[in-house]
Known about the structure:
With 239 residues, the protein is of the alpha+beta class. The protein has one domain (42-237): Aminohydrolase, N-terminal nucleophile (Ntn) domain (Glutamine Phosphoribosylpyrophosphate, subunit 1, domain 1, 4-Layer Sandwich), CATH 3.60.20. The chain has 5 helices and 13 strands. The chain has helices at 34-38, 94-115, 121-134, 175-185, 192-209; strands at 41-42, 46-51, 56-60, 64-66, 70-73, 79-83, 86-89, 143-148, 151-157, 163-165, 168-172, 217-223, 226-232. The strands form 3 sheets. Strands 11-2-3-12-13 form a 5-stranded antiparallel beta sheet, with helices on one face. A 5-stranded antiparallel beta sheet has the order 6-7-8-9-10. A 3-stranded antiparallel beta sheet has the order 1-4-5, with no helix packed on it. A hairpin with a 2-residue loop joins strand 6 and strand 7 (86-89). Helix 4 (175-185) packs antiparallel against helix 5 (192-209). Mean pLDDT is 85; it is low at 8-12 and 22-29.
Amino acid sequence: xxxxxSPLPRTGQDHTLSPYEPELGDVPSNDLSVDDLDNVxxxxxxxxxxxxxxxxVIATDMRASLGGRFVSNKDVQKVEQIHPSAALTxxxxxxxxxSFIRSLRAEVDLYEARRGEDISISALATLAxxxxxxxxxxxxxxxxxGVDDEGHHVYSIDPAGGVMADDYTVTGSGLTVAYGxxxxxxxxxxxxxxxxxxxxxxxxxxxxxDTGSGNGVxxxxxxxxxxxxxxxxxxxxxx
Length: 239
C-alpha cells in the first residue's frame, strides 16, 4: 500500500524531516575569550631559521609562559623533527603547536607509505600553510627548515597560512631584536657550525630584551637525511 507523501515522524529535534536523512551535529566553537588566553601556555619565543652552504640551522629559546606574564616552564624544546631532513619550530600556543606538529608528522608518514619516497620540503611547506589556514591550530607562527634534492630551505608560516621562503627568518615575540643580529652577521656561504653561532647570538640578543624568551637555546642542525637537535642552558657552550 502506498504511503502518504507527508514527511514521516522522526525522533530528535525536528519531526518534519525524514528518518532516512543524516543528522548533523554542531562543531564546538574554538573562540577564546581574553580570560581564556590568559590561561593558555604560550611559547612567547624567539625562533630563527638559517640556510647555509651545508644545510639548515634552526635555533630557539627554551621558555614557556602563562598568559605572557608568568614563566610556566624553563626547559621547552621548541624545535621538533617532522621529516627525515626537516624540522619545525613551536611558536604561539603550546597546544596548537604540538597538535600542528603531530598532524604534519602523520601526513609525512602517509606520503612515504603511499609513494615510497619522502615528501619534498616545498610540498611540505605548502601542506603546512594549508593546515595553518584551515585547521584548528590556534595562534601559531612556526619556521620550517629542511634539505632535499632541490636544495636547502627555510620557510616562515604565518597564522593565516602564508608561506614565505627566505635565506633566513625569525618568528616570535623577540624577532625585532634577533633580526638585527642576523642582518649584521649572516653570510650565504656559512657552514652549519658558523650558522649555529650566529643563530645562537640572535637568540641571546632577544633573551636580553624580550620577556617571552629565555632560559637557554635549542639548536637543530639539518643535513640531507639527518636532523640533530641539542639544548644548551649556557650560551657560552655555543658562543
